[in-house]
Structure of Condensin complex subunit 1:
Amino acid sequence: MLEDVDLVKDESLKHLIQVILCLCTTRYDRGLGHGPPGVQTRVTKEYLREEHLSDFVAELLHMLVTQYSDTKLIENVLRDFASKVFTDKDTKVAKAYSRFFVVISELEPKEVLKQMVHLQVHLDSESHTIRMSLIEAIGNLIHNFLAMDNSDSAAKSMHAYYDIIQERFRDVNSFVRVKVLQVLMKLTEPREGSAITDIPVATRPLLINLAAGRLHDKSSIVRRNAIKLLTRFLETSPFLVFPQDKGSLSLRYFESKKRELEELIKSKFPTEMIPGIEPTEGEQSGQSAPVDAMEVDDATDMDVDEQPPAPPAPVEPAPPPAPDEESVVPMNQELQRLRQFLKYYTDGIRFIRQVKSMVATLCELLASNVKGEVVESMHFFVEAHRLKMECAEEGVKKMVHKIWDKDTGESEVGSIKEHLMKSYYQVYFEGLVESRVETAEEVANRLIGLTFTMTLAELTSLEQLLSTMVGKNMVPEEVVETLWSIFASKKKEVSAARRRGALTVLSYFAKAKPDIIADNLDNLLRVGLGEYGKKDLLLARSTCVAVQQLGTSKRTKGSLAPSHARLTMAHPMFARLRDLIIDAGPSLDWFGFAEQAINTIYLLSEHPDVLCGELIRLIASSIFEIKSPNAQVDDVADDLANALNIDERSQDHIAAGTEQPAGDLTATPFDLSRLCFLVGHVAIKQTVHLEAVESEWKRRKHAEMLEKTPRKAAAAADDLDAVTGTAEDEFTEAITHVRENELLYGENSLLKSFGPMIAFICSSNRTFKDQILQTNAVLSLCKLMCVSSEFCEAHLQLLFTILEKSQSPVIRSNTIIGLGDMTVSFNSLIDQNISYLYNRLGDEDLGVKKNTLMVLTFLILNGMVKVKGQISEMAKCLECEERRISDLAKLFFKELSTKDNAVYNNLPDIISNLSHPATGVEEESFRNIMKYLMEFIKKERQTENIVEKLLLRFRNADTERQWRDIAFCLSLLNVTSEKSIKKVVEHLPIYQDKLHEAGVYKSFQDILGKAKKLAKAELKTYIEEFEVKLTSLHDKCVENEATVSNAVTEKGKGRGKAKKESVGGVTDGMQDMTLGQAAGQEEMDVDDLIGGTRGNGTKRGMSVRTPAKTPRRIKVRKVRQSDDDSDDDDAEEVRGTMESPFEVQSTRRSGRNQQVGTATKPRGGLKFVETEDEADDMLLDEDEDEDEEDEEDVRPRRPQKGGMVGVPRWKAALRNAGREVREDDEEDNDVEELPEAGDGNEDPEDEDDDQEEDEDEALIQSPRKGPVRRGVRSAMPSRAITKGAAAGSWNGRSSRLR
């Protein structure tokens, strides 16, 4: 019956079975026929193996204890549970026992507590399910038994169990960490009818710190529960008990109360009368200090009468008389009471500062992609704001950005947007205290206060949030009426800032309901554009922004934007705007007002060009003293040209970048700045107006088409893009013609003369030195350049010059933004000079750098600029000190990774530029950047290609820093596929001479370690064999590097001053020597690793050794072209040696024509030349057969008619020199070299520096041909034979001598 899950759910049947089992256990010695242990055996061996019987067994044991007073069975079952061992594979049994133990700990905590000594071993169990049950059982013991026991033993046990809970915060399993947080959330709940929780006050600070640490946990579910726990700590704070505090946890309030108590204690109890007050005050200082749980515990548990004895009073010459005992007792009681209050507020300050320290992390979690974390963070800040904590303001303002979050769910119920709107409604509309009914005026004041403290980005998000709330009818009408009364109030108490804030909030509301503005348009004109607006241009600007809500319209997908009603030119609003623009005093606020006024005119006026043209004529006439401001447009243009002394010749000066004396101007720089700003903004808005006209034409044509063919309305809607989407239709062509040829170059255009004027001011920055004038002139120039491609091309170089040389960050930022707009309009013009934009990523001003990054991000992600090698400059921004810049750079690369392998294609260029000595970054920054970028390489094919490209880069890497960078990038890749691993093995000869560098070797160790873990089983043996060879090579390379270093040191000691060699560079070459060019006796090759041989049967990798003391000879190499040309052709080379105290080994190298310095052996012969340029010109073709090359006489060829190529006086010395290599034994890899005939010119050790060059030339010897053993390979690049050169070069790298 118990095996049936449905029968066990029957309560009556289950109860009967439990009674029967209890009777069998207590009344019958033999139980169920198996003796008294029969029930226990069935419980442990059968019942507790089924998860659905866990509750049944726990209730059975509880019945035995409560109704039959039998504890023997429960003790035996718990001991049997303690003796069991659970593994990760025992999931079913572990779940059954876990459920049983949790339930029995809740039903019989006292009996479980007796057995906890034995059960604690499961805290280290391999099964995380068992560990979770232990943690939950400990919580039940504390809540149901220990917290209600006031004995000392219970207090000690409770502290011990809290220590266990604190240790489990660091459990390796995230589910256990979650269970710890959930248990603590249960313990923080106040008991019924009381505000007391199960967590001691002394333990709370430490638990808060541990919970705050879990905010950085790698598991999102742990972070979410940590936020929940911290919110619960706020709700159940012990510092909310005093009614006079009014439920506030304000830091300022607590600090003020603490100061009052300190002053009260000092005034009532001077230190000379009451000993011990001074140490108490020192302990209770307001400084933030780390919390020690034991110290707090001792201070909390200590009784008032058991205060620590006061230190002895200092010895004074005349101590004051002791007061009467009757007066001391009341004084001591009052002092102790004041001390308790002081400790209360001090601990409260410590708690508030703990919460404040975690606000920054919680603000970061608001930007998480996990919905649960975002929602719980919102709840935390709402609760903190309810408690009047100042630190909550930052989080409340940050969460407003979540209004832009895109919810993917089918319903908005429970979405992040919905939670955000509810949170803001609780914070600003329901009030800070739940029991208090807030009035509409108080709600309005809070909303107005937001406009004072938020940034521009936050205000933009707030506008979207409030408009959405208005659309959902979440804003009461009383609040709207209160805001209008504040705006239109004539009371002097209403400040200008408060009036502006009310209008700003109303404009946010009007975005969803334009009737809010339309119904109160008269108030706007009377106040905003009337007497108050004249005094406060910022209020006039806000009025223009609010009025613009009348022209907003939403476009539905698949249709044109609907047109809005425009006002006639006779409307009083336009007259007020014109008067304010012309008559406003000299204030910087004028520019912001003028911008919004022009926007309003172009949005709502029937003929905005007429009104704006009149404004320009009036302002220009007042500046240049033109007598007839109402004259025709061309007359005004001529007068402007004459006043500014601008003609065709002045345009030449502007194009050339030179200055020309300006005309006689009587206007102030501020007046000229206003004119420049007005001209530029009117030009750009006129362009927008033309686009609106084009859209209106298309809309009308589409409407006419629908009227003519109503039956085909649906098909016409589908073909809407055919009407509106083409760029070559008649409407677009007409508008483009007006824009390109009429606005700035038309004969009747008012802007015709202002373009040269503005360009003239920008180019004459020494004449027009005013900063405001230059800023507005450059801004207007950028706007004019966005109008016409011809004007843009004519002044593009001037704008680039301003961008590079301007000292003003504002001008540079405006220029960058303007160039971004020009790129959208005229892509071909800017794309050729895109490097000017990338250069600003290195600007010293962070604002310019941020704007540049944003502009380039927009252009690249929208496909307007091709991704090129300069993208490495954007990668440098990942390590910018400014947090916002680095976050923008991360966002850019994250979005770029979704664009068709864009990061993968540009990764080689990024690595090259970042590791380059001239353009690169610090090594630590390089590693951080590459760690981030390599995360986007996920495809196996991409990994294989990058591995090969990086390995080949070792050839051209010159410095150890570049070696480390390449190896580090390789270690970041998942080299786990068979192809990737084989590429690492096959390219061993390329990087084997770099293994002595510790960073390079460590990176390859990491590569192999990762490969062994993730690679397939059949590859592991192959990888392990390669790892052994790699380790052997590393050890020998390190040993040889040490040998080279010692040789250099010993030679320097023996010879004193090292002699400079003009040929071969012995001294300098040894100092610059790398390990691959040193004397390695047993260099490895890929073919050696896999046991391969050469085509003729000889073993690969045989070494060539020379005696320690050999006659000085010239280095000679013989290059042999392989028959099978591949990407990496093999070549044989044979070289002589110069005097060296160490051995030289040769190995196989790659390349068809190897050239070292100025000595070359190109396919046919050896030429000696004097310069590197001659060496490049003297490459000869080698036509000999491969079999004949082994017997070729490697000597300088005879000169042609023009004489011997190179230095003629070397000829005598070269004829008598030679080298012979012969094979001694098949089993011996050493090749003996025959002594060479010298010419008797040995270097004396004490020779003067003046004779070195001549003697070096005379000492150069020519090698003779000798039998060359097949299979001998050289790893050393041949030396340069250059007159007067200390070292040559090989493939663009510095050559080094072995």
About this structure: The radius of gyration is 44 Å. The first strand starts at residue 1130 and ends at 1131. Residues 239 and 348 are 6 Å apart (CA to CA).
